[in-house]
Amino acid sequence: MHNLTAIQISQAYRRGDFNPVELVEHLLARIQKYDGAYNAFLEVAKESALRDAQQAWREMKAGENKGVLHGVPFAVKDNFDVAGSVTTCHSAASTKDAAQADATAVSRLKAGGAVYLGKLALHEYAFGAPTFDTPYPPARNPWNREHQPGGSSSGSGAAVSAGFIPLALGTDTGGSVRNPAACCGVVGLKPTYDLIPRDGVYPLAFTLDHVGPLARSVDDIAAVLDTLQVAENGRPYLQPAPESLKGKRIGFIRRFHEEDLSAHPDMTQALNDAAEVFAELGATVETVSVPALSEFVNIQRIIIAAEAWAVHGQGMTQSPQLYSKALRTKAMVGAFLSATDYLKAQQARRGLCDSINQLFNVYDALLVVNSLDPACRIDDMDEVNRAYRRQARVPFSLTGHPAISIPCGLSSTGLPLSFQLVSNFFQESELFSMGAAYQAATDWHMKHPELVSSIEQAAT
Amino acid sequence: MSNEISASLPISDWQRDDPAWARLVAFDKESYLTAAKAGKELEEVASGIKDSIIDPWSYRDIEV
């Protein structure tokens, strides 16, 4: 039952196949057995999860239905506040005081009957790297624990992929939901900027930060957004997958992975295959022209560096020893930028946003590469740093357009590959419709890794 | 902070005079040098952004 989607779990509850208590007990045992090798969880809320699962089961037996996620477990990246728990941000520099209240996104999932199961690993303060000089070990990739799971929502991607949890929340400032989704072979959404409330989430860069969910299917992501109650027009995001995409127009951005950078051949093939699937579903797929990837990346780097230094500068100058070397190196960049540099970048951001906006006068969605390579090894920091430059997630972090990461293959080395679909602002329903049609026509999202147990790992 | 480090890098007055910053640099000179190099690159990117983008007279183009 650990590899079921949230919607399949909900259906199983209704059929009486198993109940929320049985599922939570199963997941807790699985986490106990395997997570010592993957480090996805920083804190497992065993007692409260069992109590909440029992409550959900009582409600269901009494005929109460809180929605699709009633009784479905979820976990959150540890930069979300959860009442009574310390928000560590995976850092020795975090506060030691427990949060007084849940982040808005957490409280809305709980109100929808979802069962909170714990806190997940991240790159330090959502900006560091998979490093070994933080108080907790880095999460590892369930497809191959010698490889990184992507980040910064590393534990969120690893936990969903490993079958520890069907749903997780993460944050995405420069791709931090879509990167672990790509590396771990799950679905991840960066919604329109500010669609999901950021209240109670530790900031990295306030004009770039997004809250986003990770799950095993596009439909599950739609169900999370419905439970978060963020639909502007009241129409549920979760709809039956269309049988045909006839009449839909998809702009294929090839320049990022063919001209600006050169993608791994497996990735190029997987992208072309995905384009073919969309064409077979009836959509018109055409190559479109956009500014160079480096234009987006340079502007985003200035903004994130300046804003992150505003967040971390004081703490880092006072107590540098509490931060990892990777975070010190990244955050300190902002100290060398002026207010004029920052404002110029914000002005240039508008032009880049317009260049993407114009495409939506013609196209319903854009097909874009995600990572240009499969996940790299976790112990090679040069490779990790290189991997973070070889991606096309940043453009949409900068413009604020919604972008969803969808698995679309496995590399010759058995690691997940994925693409992004991007739509106009607040048109997440377009992504869910096209994504669900793609997943109905393919089975990449139904493939799962073979895990190594904690005991086996300890013996090696 | 030694003059040897600061001389060739874009150091602000506040950085030069701030003992906390000096401590940070002393604690991790390698990160400081890497960050300073990246900061200089980004400063050059920013200086390359066309001034016309922030033309203060552009308010006259705004239709009300």
Concise synopsis of the structure shown:
The complex is a heterodimer of chains A (460) and B (64). With 460 residues, chain A is of the alpha/beta class.
Descriptive terms for the model:
heterodimer; A: 460 residues; alpha/beta; eleven-stranded mixed β-sheet; 16 helices; 40% helix; 13% strand; B: 64 residues; mainly alpha; elongated
Tell me what you see in this structure:
The complex is a heterodimer of chains A (460) and B (64). Chain A has 460 residues and is α/β, with parallel strands linked by helices. Chain A contains 16 helices and eleven strands. Chain A has helices at residues 6-15, 20-34, 46-61, 104-111, 154-161, 178-184, 218-228, 255-260, 265-280, 293-318, 325-331, 339-359, 381-389, 394-399, 428-441, 454-459; strands at residues 41-44, 73-77, 115-120, 167-172, 187-190, 210-215, 249-253, 284-288, 365-369, 403-410, 416-422. In chain A, strands 1-3-2-4-6-5-10-11-9-7-8 form an eleven-stranded mixed sheet, with helices on both faces. In chain A, a hairpin with a 5-residue loop joins strand 10 and strand 11 (416-422). In chain A, helix 7 packs antiparallel against helix 15 (428-441). The relative contact order of chain A is 0.14. The mean pLDDT of chain A is 96. Chain B is mainly alpha-helical and 64 residues long. Helix content of chain B is 59%, strand content 0%. Chain B has helices at 3-6, 13-17, 19-27, 29-48. The radius of gyration of chain B is 18 Å and the shape is elongated. The N and C termini of chain B lie far apart (53 Å). The mean pLDDT of chain B is 75. The chains are: A alpha/beta (460), B mainly alpha (64). Chains A and B meet through helix 10, helix 11 and helix 12 of A and helix 3 and helix 4 of B.
